[in-house]
Write a sequence for this structure.
């Protein structure tokens, strides 16, 4: 077990050419090479990169960085729209407030286990879900405690059944509706976690990612000594057609824009764009709830879906408006939720992303296809690690 630190503070805008020259060299199975600017001699690092088919070719030293300043707590974002209280990511620990664009350079996990219980949106089953700390290079790993601890990594190779939610299946064992939880973990910078479940579907809770953000705030986050590797998109990749598509292109941050169109008076055409960070996710995206149309309810129920659906965990639209008496949390809550879903599916990449993601009418099938298409093309991405510029604080336990 590596010595761990309370919440990470390492910030490095981008790799410099100098950092690149000083970096270790890696080679992909097809013979192409790329560099990462940080080297760890920890064998776990090689395991992590091996997930992407890389092996080490040469080595270099590890840079150390000074301690960062105290972070500040962002005020709640009130726009005259009813919104549940969301705990700011600033409460995650004694870390600095990051300015944009910024990249954390060390992997993080939870400081302590935290659990919640709730009903699955589609199956209606009760599930107890426990988020647990995990060693560096574990990634996000589901564990079915009701099936002798059977494990399913959050990885594109296990994607199945993506019509109304994203499910992962390994050897016939499923974890369903993973996207809101994965979005919260991914956007809040949790690299490693074990997600224990005693049934097959992640609880829908209030239909948004906010309860998972609150779980992370309760757990706190810890930074490890292990370097964090980003997947940087190197060339544009487009998936889909004129009606529905996703374009991934190079960027120095994780930037998402999304357009949705529904012929409904409450939705119409909505567009939202942002750089995804802990702060923007918590304030602008996490509270946005899933939604559905009353006219589809019977059809979906006949298909065995939305058995746990209600006005407590979804926005329900009839032909003229919404049935939820509390109203919307954002005027454009619908497109914001689609971005939550998209981020949850992008989490299957297994590393934080440096790319501009433009999505037109996205859905889980398209999102997960885009992830697979990106990773399948070795020329389209590379693993990079920012040089640390601030040292993490020492562990408190
Ligand atoms: Zn969703």
């Amino acid at each position: 077990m590596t010595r761990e630190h309370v919440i990470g503070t390492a910030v490095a805008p981008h790799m410099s050419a100098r950092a690149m020259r000083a970096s270790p060299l890696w080679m992909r199975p097809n013979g192409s090479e790329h560099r990462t600017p940080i080297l760890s001699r920890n064998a776990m690092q090689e395991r992590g990169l091996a997930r992407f088919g890389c092996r080490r070719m040469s080595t270099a030293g590890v840079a150390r960085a000074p301690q960062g300043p105290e972070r500040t707590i962002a005020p709640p974002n009130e726009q005259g729209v009813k919104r549940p209280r969301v705990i700011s990511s600033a409460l995650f620990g004694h870390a600095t407030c990051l300015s944009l664009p910024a990249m954390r350079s060390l992997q993080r996990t939870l400081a302590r286990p935290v659990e919640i219980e709730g009903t699955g949106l589609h199956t209606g089953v009760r599930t107890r879900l426990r988020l647990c700390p995990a060693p560096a290079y574990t990634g996000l790993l589901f564990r079915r405690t009701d099936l002798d601890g059977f494990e399913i990594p959050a990885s594109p190779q296990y994607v199945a059944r993506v019509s109304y939610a994203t499910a992962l299946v390994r050897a016939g064992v499923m974890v369903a509706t993973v996207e809101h939880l994965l979005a919260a973990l991914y956007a809040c910078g949790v690299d490693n976690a074990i997600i224990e479940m005693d049934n097959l579907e992640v609880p829908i809770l209030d239909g948004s990612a906010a309860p998972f953000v609150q779980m992370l705030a309760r757990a706190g986050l810890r930074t490890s000594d292990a370097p964090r590797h980003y997947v940087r998109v190197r060339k544009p990749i487009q998936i889909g057609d004129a009606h529905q598509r996703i374009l991934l292109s190079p960027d120095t941050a994780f930037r998402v824009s999304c357009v949705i169109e529904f012929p409904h008076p409450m939705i119409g055409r909505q567009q939202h764009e942002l750089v995804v960070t802990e702060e923007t996710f918590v304030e602008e995206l996490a509270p946005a709830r899933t939604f559905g149309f009353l006219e589809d309810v019977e059809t979906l129920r006949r298909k065995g879906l939305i058995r746990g659906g209600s006005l407590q965990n979804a926005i329900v639209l009839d032909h003229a408006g919404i049935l939820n008496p509390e109203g919307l949390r954002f005027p454009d809550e619908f497109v914001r939720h689609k971005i939550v879903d998209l981020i949850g599916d992008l989490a299957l990449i297994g590393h934080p992303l440096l790319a501009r993601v433009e999505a037109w009418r996205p859905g889980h099938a398209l999102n997960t296809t885009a992830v697979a298409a990106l990773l399948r093309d070795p020329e389209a991405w590379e693993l990079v690690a920012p040089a640390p510029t601030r040292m993490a604080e020492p562990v408190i336990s």
